[in-house]
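Marked as duplicate of an earlier ticket. Keeping the data here for the record.
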Amino acid sequence: MSIIVVGIRDEGIHEFADAEAMKAAAASHGWTYTKDEDAGHLVPYLLGYPRFEELCGPMGGDPDKIRYETWAAYDLYSR
């Protein structure tokens, strides 16, 4: 599954082929990996995806594209 990270203005949009590619690029984007998602209330296909302090996500909607948002984008688009 591909991954998209949505930001606002100069934060841009970043796309990754998979969770490992996202983790590998995290430090260069200033994202701090915390753990893999394990919250039982989420749809099963989101489990195991990485979590980062600076991002809201993983989010569902489309099982073929996992979405994350910066906190600023989350406040603007999703809250």
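See parent ticket for discussion. The beta strands are 2-6, 13-16, 33-36, 50-52, 55-62, 65-70.
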